[in-house]
Please model this.
Amino acid sequence: MKKLRVLVLTHESLVPPESLEGYTEQQVNEWKTEYDVVTHLKRAGHEVRVLGLYDNLADLRAAITMWKPDIAFNLLQEFQGIVTYDQHIVAYLELMRQPYTGCNPRGMMLSRDKVLSKQILAYHRLPTPKFAIFRRGRRYQLSHRLRFPLFVKSATEDASLGIAQASIVEDRARLKERIDFVHESTKTDALVEEYIEGRELYVGVCGNERLTTFPVWEMDFGTLPLAGIATRKVKWDLKYQRKHGIRTGRAAGLADADLDRLGRMSRRIYRALHLSGYARMDFRRRADGSVFVLEANCNPNLAHGEDFADSAASAGVEYPELLQRLVRLGLNYGAEWRLNGN
Model:
């Protein structure tokens, strides 16, 4: 690949330093993705600039018009502190006719809206747990359609915000308590779905039109005494992970038919939600072999050594090549301004 001008977009608090020296492991973990991406892009010979954003589009416009980057490497997960606003930044990039990495605005909107995405998946006959939505600020009645145990989470927040062991509820009293907790703590609607006991599996997908699936990955919950769910501590607390032996790795013991099914389902989900660039599909597999889609994550964690990068590496796509592949996908994505011949 020729050497490119790459504008890396991050949250203003996650602009990485030049070196890791002097930082604790927990501090590094906060901006590890940004550091890994910037460092490896520079090592590949690209000219890299990092732009930290919170709410100022003028800075983004100036960087695009004055520096004229070949591509924007999008690592934003929110804008103005609002998770669902990151799709508008990508839409702005399209309006500026600026190529970018990762998912397009439509795919981001559909996958970020957990209720809408589940409705779309159900329409396409992709198995997903039965669910109900409880709107914040409105009176509600507890549904009799869903069977306990139930799992309660925010309808829009990601990164396991608001999820804990208490998110699994066994009766109507606890269900009401947890719905109220989600409403108050996350300021969002609450999504309630039937809890699926079983193995938690992840499948990374990469591509625009032609899709590649990476080997199936699994979350091992270690010694946790309760039902295994990916809480915020499970995902991000390094000391907690070490204490309980929590880790992820290539899923073992799955038959070829299971692997093929998960791959086909992942590609169907990707296309149904109009995703592009790269994404990670989350599944639960029961002991009887039945598989349910939990959610689709566009632009998942891209840090070196995390699930997506590790699963790619296990398929022979090492981290530097993975980043180069995402750049090529961004450069070749068929945005509307390109399709219209402008």
Notes: The mean pLDDT is 92.
